[in-house]
């Protein structure tokens, strides 16, 4: 169990933050400083603007109130998160979202107790405009592209049809319940029930992400749940707005329903096109940023946010837009901007989305402390029950159909996890506040809060043990070796050739066509010329220079016991992989569903070399891969042996030095590996001598960095 | 259409091939039609020129190896049964299939698939992938944009990883071991041949 001593410290700091937040309204005017220089102010009205003597100290809180409070909230959120990771065994049992909500509840309670009025709630505008976009952008940017598009059909199936099923099912059943209890619930109309159903049925990406990331399920399952939670926004938003407008209409005709149906399509496609447009523009802009590299990351964020705002303005689905924008621009931007900019982009994305998410959960907790709750046992309990039941039946039915068309069937265990992992979160919460006022609105709010809390706490906490119980296939983690890469490539080519012989046109015809189009036109247009070809020597040289400038701490790396001689740096692995993938000749490839060769190379650079930095997952899980090896400081002689004539690489640089920072994410060494195409081998002799000593040194060095590790997070 | 068995009569050795390879009658028929399509001059067998007429295959980096794999050693032509037997390797593996010990291993078993892939490397059929053979394949796959040194490094690395008995070549067992994490059934199966 980790030391618990930081926890009280953090708690005290949090309490200080709470108190500061509770004080402003009641804080007296800061004009009570002792009079100085002999002037007597005891009879002067402080509000009169008279010249005063100089004071040594003065306090003017109102001047800075708004930003001060915002900063305090963010500080509170971050300290809570910090405390969570320091708190020993808690992370293993309770997901972070739960802890944050509890902190929010605590803070809300404190504020309520001090001020005797409701604490600030999460305004829907703040949520939708400021807090949600970073999370979705982060999700979209690190979306595993290949997996996503392969499973896109299934994801859309679940997202659209599943959400429709849930909405209608929950809405209609709730109406039935209301009919059964006319005394207390009689004034809730069908449309109200449908409206409520539309907002409560939506699975929330924020909550789902936060729980699933800690769970390490296999990739396919992860992408199914995650993709569904992202895409069902389109359906949810449309249905919500539809029912809301129906409520305002005097009567609803069949034509309105039809129009509503069309709107679903329009909203989704509209968001898609807005996202595509902005993504391409962003890619094009990034092409010209090499002269002002410092602001390159800014464009990524600006364009993404702009796409979100534009589609919200047009009443399209903002989430679909921002995800599309991120997915579209990613490959071009990454090719165009410098490595440091790439790092900046990724870190900022992670940071903002992390802060956003934390704030959302804390505010969820705070907003629960309200004056305006209305309780109704039948309504609340039946809502909870119906949510579970309808989701389960929906998943079962849909999967039964979709399994016939898929290669990798969604197993029963996966289905259970999909159904059980349908967490509701802040989107429902914000949407319920936006409902036009009607007598039972408070009931809806209370019910929504209860459902959210239930799903996040109960389902969030029990899903991990249940997963272990059901033994869901875990993600395989080890990186492929070079042999595997080569042989896999060969097999891809082989299969492609055999398919050509047999005359099989697979379902990836369009994917391949797109890839050809991409290579021929888009990449040429959107990626700057000097980034398109590899000049390996130059790149290696630049890389070395860059490292020197970064002042990388030269720590001796760990030698893998697995391969005693000539272990490879992660960058080298990356570069080999990229050589294998990028230099493959183009030809029309019709591949097996899961392994299209054209997208594989992108995935190698995205999935494997740039494993998403899971926000909750410690950055150092990668560190414990035993396939990752580091090479020690290389003798200059060895280096020059393996790259004869490349004398430009100056002697003191070792290309494969590994800083503790980099060592945390060896397989996501994007900046380092991006342009590094030169595999180089160290000499065997020195390593073996120094390896034990260096191993302990690197362990100590990495342990220093492992402050965010959850101790009990084991590599799987 | 008549019953499948009557059309199957047109296919030489149809029944026997079905039993041997596990293809269904419909698939066999389809493959026969494809065979006839490739056999432009209607000779009843395929030559390497017929294979090379497939446009995408000629662009495939290892296209000539794949074509070569259809031809038995010493043969210049491929008749339909050889054609089907080679393609039988690419049927998806059936799970839960029990077979009597005496039956030969089905063509689409994981082992047989791997052997087929192994033979792509090992053209001289000596049972080992030597460094030169590996280099040749790498050169074909990686084309002109990689330097000779990089190729050598990659080949070195690959052999070093896989070579357990340190004979500087990859035997079939080592090959199989290095691919144990890869889902061969997935990578080497054409779904529509199920």
UniProtKB/TrEMBL annotation, chain A:
It is found in: Cell membrane. GO terms for biological process: regulation of intracellular pH; sodium ion import across plasma membrane. Residues 75-468 form the Cation/H+ exchanger transmembrane domain. The keyword Transmembrane applies. Residues 563-623 form the Sodium/hydrogen exchanger regulatory region domain. It is a multi-pass membrane protein. Residues 672-696 are annotated as: Disordered. One of its GO terms (cellular component) is plasma membrane. The keyword Cell membrane applies. It comes from the Eukaryota. Residues 1-20 form the signal peptide. GO terms for molecular function: potassium:proton antiporter activity; sodium:proton antiporter activity. The chain crosses the membrane at residues 92-114, 126-143, 155-177, 189-211, 223-243, 263-283, 345-369, 375-403, 415-435, 447-467. Keywords: Antiport, Cell membrane, Ion transport, Membrane, Signal, Sodium, Sodium transport, Transmembrane, Transmembrane helix, Transport. PANTHER family: SODIUM/HYDROGEN EXCHANGER (PTHR10110), SODIUM_HYDROGEN EXCHANGER 2 (PTHR10110:SF89). Belongs to the monovalent cation:proton antiporter 1 (CPA1) transporter (TC 2.A.36) family. This is Sodium/hydrogen exchanger. It comes from Fundulus heteroclitus (Killifish). The lineage of its organism: Eukaryota, Metazoa, Chordata, Craniata, Vertebrata.
């Amino acid at each position: 169990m980790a030391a618990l001593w930081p926890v009280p410290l953090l708690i005290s700091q949090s309490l200080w933050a709470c108190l500061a937040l509770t004080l402003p309204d009641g804080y007296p005017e800061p004009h009570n400083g002792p009079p100085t220089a002999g002037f007597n102010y005891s009879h002067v009205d402080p509000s009169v603007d008279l010249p005063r003597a100089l004071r040594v100290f003065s306090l003017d809180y109102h001047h800075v109130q708004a930003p001060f409070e915002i900063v305090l909230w963010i500080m509170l959120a971050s300290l809570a998160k910090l405390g969570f990771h320091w708190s020993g065994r808690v992370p293993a049992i309770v997901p972070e979202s739960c802890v944050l909500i509890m902190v929010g509840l605590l803070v809300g309670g404190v504020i309520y107790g001090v001020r005797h009025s409701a604490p600030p709630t999460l305004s829907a505008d703040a949520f939708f405009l400021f807090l949600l976009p970073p999370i979705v952008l982060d999700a979209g940017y690190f979306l595993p592209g290949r997996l996503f598009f392969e499973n896109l059909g299934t994801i859309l199936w679940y997202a659209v049809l599943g959400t429709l099923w849930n909405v209608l099912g929950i809405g209609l059943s709730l109406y039935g319940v209301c009919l059964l209890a006319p005394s207390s619930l009689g004034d809730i109309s069908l449309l109200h029930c449908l409206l409520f159903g539309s907002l409560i049925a939506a699975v929330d990406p924020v909550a789902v992400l936060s729980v699933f990331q800690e769970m390490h399920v296999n990739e396919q399952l992860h992408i199914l749940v995650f993709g569904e939670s992202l895409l069902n926004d389109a359906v949810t938003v449309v249905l919500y707005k539809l029912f809301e407008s129906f409520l305002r209409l005097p009567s609803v005709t069949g034509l309105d329903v039809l129009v509503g149906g069309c709107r679903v399509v329009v909203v989704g496609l509209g968001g898609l096109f807005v996202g595509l447009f902005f993504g391409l523009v962003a890619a094009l802009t990034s092409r010209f940023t090499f002269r002002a590299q410092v602001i390159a990351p800014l464009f990524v964020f600006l364009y993404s946010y702009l796409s979100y705002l534009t589609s919200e303005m047009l009443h399209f689905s903002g989430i679909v837009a921002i995800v599309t924008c991120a997915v579209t621009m990613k490959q071009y931007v990454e090719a165009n901007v410098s490595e440091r900019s790439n790092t900046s982009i990724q870190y900022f994305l992670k940071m903002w989305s992390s802060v956003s998410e934390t704030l959302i959960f804390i505010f969820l907790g705070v907003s629960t402390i309200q004056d305006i709750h209305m309780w109704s046992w039948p309504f609340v309990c039946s809502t909870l029950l119906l949510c579970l039941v309808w989701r389960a039946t929906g998943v079962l039915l849909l999967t039964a159909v979709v399994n016939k068309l898929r290669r990798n069937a969604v197993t029963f265990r996966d289905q259970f996890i999909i159904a059980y992992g349908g967490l509701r979160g802040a989107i429902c919460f914000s949407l319920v506040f936006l409902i036009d006022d009607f007598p039972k609105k408070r009931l809806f709010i209370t019910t929504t809060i209860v459902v959210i809390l239930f799903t996040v706490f109960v389902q969030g906490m029990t899903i991990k043990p249940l997963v272990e119980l059901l033994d869901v296939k875990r993600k395989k983690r080890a990186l492929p070796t070079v042999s595997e890469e080569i042989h896999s490539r060969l097999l891809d080519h082989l299969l492609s050739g055999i398919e050509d012989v047999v005359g099989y046109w697979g379902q990836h015809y369009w994917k391949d066509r797109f890839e050809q189009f991409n290579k021929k036109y888009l990449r040429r247009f959107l990626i700057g010329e000097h980034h398109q070809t590899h000049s390996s020597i130059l790149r290696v040289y630049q890389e070395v220079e860059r490292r020197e400038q970064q002042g990388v701490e030269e720590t001796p790396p760990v030698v893998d016991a697995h391969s005693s001689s000539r272990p490879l740096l992660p960058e080298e692995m990356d570069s080999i992989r990229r050589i294998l993938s990028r230099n493959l000749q183009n030809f029309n490839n019709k591949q097996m569903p899961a392994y299209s060769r054209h997208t594989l190379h992108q995935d190698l650079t995205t999935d494997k070399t740039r494993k998403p930095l899971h926000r909750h997952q410690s950055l150092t899980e990668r560190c414990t891969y035993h396939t990752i090896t580091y090479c020690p400081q290389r003798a200059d002689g060895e280096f020059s042996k393996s790259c004869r004539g490349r004398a430009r690489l100056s002697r003191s640089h070792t290309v494969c030095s590994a800083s503790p920072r980099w060592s945390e994410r060896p397989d996501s060494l994007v900046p380092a590996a991006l342009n590094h195409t030169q595999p180089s081998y160290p000499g065997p002799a020195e390593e073996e001598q120094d390896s034990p000593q260096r191993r302990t040194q690197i362990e100590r060095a990495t342990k220093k960095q492992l402050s965010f590790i959850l101790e009990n997070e084991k590599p799987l | 259409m008549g019953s499948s068995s009557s059309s199957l009569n047109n296919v030489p050795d149809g029944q026997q091939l079905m039993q041997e390879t596990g293809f269904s009658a419909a698939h066999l028929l389809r493959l026969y039609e494809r065979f006839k399509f490739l056999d432009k001059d209607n000779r009843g067998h395929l030559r390497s020129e017929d294979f090379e007429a497939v446009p995408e295959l000629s662009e495939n980096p290892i296209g000539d190896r794949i074509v070569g794999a259809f031809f038995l050693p010493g043969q210049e032509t491929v008749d339909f049964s050889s054609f089907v037997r080679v393609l039988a390797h690419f049927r998806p593996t059936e799970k839960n299939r029990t077979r009597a010990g005496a039956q030969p291993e089905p063509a689409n078993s994981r082992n047989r698939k791997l052997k087929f892939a192994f033979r792509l490397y090992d053209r001289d059929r000596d049972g080992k992938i030597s460094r030169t053979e590996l280099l040749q394949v790498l050169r074909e796959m990686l084309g002109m944009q990689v330097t000779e040194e990089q190729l050598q490094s990659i080949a070195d690395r690959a052999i070093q990883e896989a070579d357990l008995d340190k004979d500087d070549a990859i035997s079939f067992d080592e090959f199989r071991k290095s691919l144990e994490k890869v889902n061969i059934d997935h990578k080497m199966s054409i779904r529509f041949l199920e």
